[in-house]
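Appendix C. Worked example: Endoribonuclease YbeY
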Amino acid sequence: MPKLDIQISREDEAWPDEPSLLALSEHTLGAAADFLAAKEGQPFPEAATELSLVFTDDASIREINAEWRSQDKPTNVLSFPAFPLEPGKMPGPMLGDIIIARETVEREAVDLEKSFSDHLTHLLVHGFLHLFGYDHMEKGEAEKMEDLETRILAQLGLSDPYAGQDPIF
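Step 2, the predicted output written as structure tokens:
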């Protein structure tokens, strides 16, 4: 099993407590890492790969989104790879950062008629895949990334988050 050293920062008190966030993150990202390692037939590094998760609010993620993506609005998840990776390659000792906004996750979960936990799990997988070089800016990339998300989520017992939708991009 790939070793992930997950560091959590809980910037909004309305998030679940840190032990709960860590347990969900370890379970979700451990499954995603196992899936990617098996899919690519490449082992993860022997030493643990470090990953930072920031659980924040809409105001904070809006500032980050404006600064780094020139989009002055909140978003659900942002990913910042420590180093660029080509899709299918394994990381070194540092993977990167994933930032998730609670209010957006809550609104989207209600709109999608999903539990908060299931939607958060999806966004953790989505952000994790971005750290591995996957993207959804073009249709082909979006289809590949969504297929990976769907397959990882299925291993976690969750349904296809894109069923009945056109690929995102």
